[in-house]
Each structure stands twice: as structure tokens, then as C-alpha cells.
């Protein structure tokens, strides 16, 4: 069996896109070129890997099995590439961060990264957790900063810091309830402003309140924490604000006030992820130390 990495890349693109033309566009090749590689791959494995349908393609059982193995192979290759281009030694660092961390952590972290030469060739990808994990597993990222523990043994998590949640709202609203320091579960679900589905911060806020999205009548589907904070500052409701973001959002949204919850405070654990197949080689721990220092500095300010 003589399977090439090119064939596996094309096959994984087809599996993701579900359509030959879109897969070819994603790989920057012509559709006939991609189709030829898929046919050659099917000949090599001796089975049909995709079923052609009027709307696109679906994977056969053999195709699904190959997809799983192909992702492992490509992850291992990405690990090999990373070992050959260590950050801090002239190598490129593909770093992913979720949107509720990136704008608050990066301004503090970048000077530290550049001082240690880790961030000289830094490429940032800001996206929700599920997308970052997918791109990390597929080798498109080297590391990712998230706030949700991975549910796969293919990833290794390094704890960075704990980020407490604050209750944010207009100054009048916080003044009325702040002295009471309510427990999260005592909050009125109808007053909660949440991030859109797919953002882990919104799900974490619901979890600590013991709620689901149908319970929160002010689920506006906001795509950013900044939008929620501006709505909260105008008296539209209350929202959970990570301490990491508090200084920047309070400065950007006049009228926004915050109050801490009583102990034990609800919080999120910020983690640095890498593939288990990627050699840490010291750079991973160094990067974790710098991001940890930056995060703690932001929260103390």
C-alpha cells in the first residue's frame, strides 16, 4: 500500500467539505486533480471511500475509518514539523485563543513573548473552542489557549491560571444588588445576558447558575463580550464578566460596574493545549510560564 501525504490531505479536505469542488478550492487545486488523487487512494486501499450524491459526497464506513487514521497521521506529521521549528529558535508559532481571552491577554503577553523571542514569528487564530480544538488536532495550530478541558487523550493541557467571574451591570443595578453579593443561583434568569451558543463563556455562566438557555429570556445571541458589557452598562441586564476582561471592558463601557460573588467564587480555568504527539521540548512550558505571568498581571491591575 503506497499512500501519500498529499492523498491524505486531499481526502481530509473532502471529508470536511463534503463536496469535490469546495474541497479542491480549500486545497488550492483543480477539482479534476483532487478527484484523481481520491481515485488513486481508493485503489490503494481497495475500497470506495466516498459515495457520490447529487448534493456532494458522504463517507463510506471505510472512509470514516480512514478519516480517523488520517487525522492521526497528519497530527503526527504536524508534531514532526513543530519539532523541526521550535519557537524561540526562529520557528513559527501558530497560536489559537478563544475570543473571551485573546483581546485581554495578548496586549500583556506579546511584549513578554517577543522579549524571549518566542513571538518573533507569531501567527494568531482567534476562534471558539470547538474550532480551535479541531484545528489543533488537524495540525493547523501548534497550541491553543482555551477555558474548557479537552475531552480527548490526543491533547495535553497545561493549567495557566484561574479567572474568577464577576457580576457586571449598570452602576444603579449593581448598587442595588451589590451589597447583597448574591449567589449565582439566586440571580433572575430573565436578567442574564449571554454570549451566543458556541462560546464557552455563555455555557459556563449558565452552568454556575444551574440554568439552560431556555431559562435565560435575554439570550440575545451576542457574538462578543464587549457587546454584552455595553448592553449591561445601559441597564439591559446582567452578565458574567471574567476578571481578566474587567479592567478593559469597564474602561470601554462607561456606566459599567462589577461586583464579586461570595466565596467560593465561580471561575474558569484557563488552559494551554498542545497535541500529545507534539514534542514539548521546553518551549511549551516556557510559553505557558509567560502566558501565566501575563494573565496574573492583568488580573492584579
Describe this structure as you would to a colleague.
With 301 residues, this protein is an alpha+beta fold. The chain has three domains: 5-82, Winged helix-like DNA-binding domain superfamily/Winged helix DNA-binding domain (Arc Repressor Mutant, subunit A), CATH 1.10.10.10; 91-159 and 270-300, Periplasmic binding protein-like II (D-Maltodextrin-Binding Protein, domain 2, 3-Layer(aba) Sandwich), CATH 3.40.190.10; 162-267, 3-Layer(aba) Sandwich (D-Maltodextrin-Binding Protein, domain 2), CATH 3.40.190. Helix content is 46%, strand content 19%. The protein contains eleven helices and nine strands. It has helices spanning 5-17, 20-27, 31-45, 61-84, 102-115, 129-137, 171-178, 200-209, 225-233, 243-252, 283-300; strands spanning 50-53, 56-59, 93-97, 122-126, 143-146, 155-170, 239-242, 256-260, 267-275. The strands form two sheets. Strands 3, 4, 5, 6, 7, 8 and 9 form a seven-stranded mixed beta sheet that branches.
List the helices and strands and how they pair.
Layout: H1 5-17, H2 20-27, H3 31-45, E1 50-53, E2 56-59, H4 61-84, E3 93-97, H5 102-115, E4 122-126, H6 129-137, E5 143-146, E6 155-170, H7 171-178, H8 200-209, H9 225-233, E7 239-242, H10 243-252, E8 256-260, E9 267-275, H11 283-300
Parallel strand pairs: 3-4, 3-5
Antiparallel strand pairs: 1-2, 5-9, 6-7, 6-8, 6-9
Helix pairs in contact: 1-2, 1-3, 1-4, 2-3, 5-11, 10-11
Amino acid at each position: 500500500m503506497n499512500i501519500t501525504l498529499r492523498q491524505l490531505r486531499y481526502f481530509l479536505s473532502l471529508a470536511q467539505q463534503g463536496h469535490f469542488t469546495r474541497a479542491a478550492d480549500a486545497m488550492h487545486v483543480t477539482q479534476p486533480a483532487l478527484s484523481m488523487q481520491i481515485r488513486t487512494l481508493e485503489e490503494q486501499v481497495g475500497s470506495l471511500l466516498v459515495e457520490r450524491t447529487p448534493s456532494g459526497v458522504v463517507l463510506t464506513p471505510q472512509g470514516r475509518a480512514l478519516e480517523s487514521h488520517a487525522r492521526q497521521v497528519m497530527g503526527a506529521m504536524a508534531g514532526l514539523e513543530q519539532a523541526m521549528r521550535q519557537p524561540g529558535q526562529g520557528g513559527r508559532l501558530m497560536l489559537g485563543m478563544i475570543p473571551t481571552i485573546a483581546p485581554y491577554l495578548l496586549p500583556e503577553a506579546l511584549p513578554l513573548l517577543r522579549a524571549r523571542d518566542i513571538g518573533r514569528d507569531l501567527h494568531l487564530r482567534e476562534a471558539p473552542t470547538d474550532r480551535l480544538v479541531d484545528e489543533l488536532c488537524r495540525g493547523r495550530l501548534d497550541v491553543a489557549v482555551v477555558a474548557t478541558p479537552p475531552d480527548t487523550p490526543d491533547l495535553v493541557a497545561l493549567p495557566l491560571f484561574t479567572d474568577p467571574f464577576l457580576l457586571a451591570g449598570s452602576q444603579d443595578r449593581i448598587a442595588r444588588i451589590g451589597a447583597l453579593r448574591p449567589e449565582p443561583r439566586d440571580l433572575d434568569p430573565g436578567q442574564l445576558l449571554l454570549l451566543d451558543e458556541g462560546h464557552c463563556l455563555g455555557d459556563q455562566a449558565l452552568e454556575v447558575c444551574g440554568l439552560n438557555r431556555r431559562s435565560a429570556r435575554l439570550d440575545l445571541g451576542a457574538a462578543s463580550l464587549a457587546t454584552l458589557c455595553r448592553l449591561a452598562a445601559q441597564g439591559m441586564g446582567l452578565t458574567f464578566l471574567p476578571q481578566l476582561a474587567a479592567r478593559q471592558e469597564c474602561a470601554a463601557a462607561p456606566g459599567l460596574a462589577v461586583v464579586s460573588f461570595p466565596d467560593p467564587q465561580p471561575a474558569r480555568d484557563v488552559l494551554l493545549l498542545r497535541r500529545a504527539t507534539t514534542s514539548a521540548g521546553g518551549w511549551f512550558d516556557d510559553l505557558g510560564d509567560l502566558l501565566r505571568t501575563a494573565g496574573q498581571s492583568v488580573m492584579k491591575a
